[in-house]
Structure formats: structure tokens, C-alpha cells
Molybdopterin-guanine dinucleotide biosynthesis protein (Nesterenkonia sphaerica), 85 residues
Amino acid sequence: MEQWVTELTHHLEIEDTEVDIDELLRIAGEAAHTVVRPAAPVTTFILGYVTGLAEASGQADHHKALKAATQVTRNRLQQRSQAPK
């Protein structure tokens, strides 16, 4: 997986971007088990998108934006998992 991330970030010209593979896989797993399986890639896409927007607009650096977005996502997933079905 690390080799793939290195290859992909190189070809996307974002080699300096730190990718926490384990954290992304954890949140993807939480989304898949809490919502539905296809929520995993959609959730990670949205996290990346909002992180990029925050960084590009100057609202936050990459690490702060991702941390905040991940926390919001985890809170929503926790609320969903506790909601009556």
C-alpha cells in the first residue's frame, strides 16, 4: 500500500503531502460498517476534498483541516451508530 501511495502522490505531483494510510483505512472501515460498504470510498473522497478546499482557501493547513474533518466525520458516524433503526 505504501508503494502505491508513493507512486500515486508522485504522479499527482503532491509528493510532499503526508498520507496517513492507517487513519484513512480506519475511517473508511467505520463508514463502511456504520453506513453501507460504498460509504468508505465516498467518505475518504469527501475528507480529501474538504481538506484541500480548506488548505487552498487558507482556512487551515493540511494537517489541521484533515484532523477537523475527520473529527466531524467520526462524530457523525458515532451519532448514526447510536440512532434507533
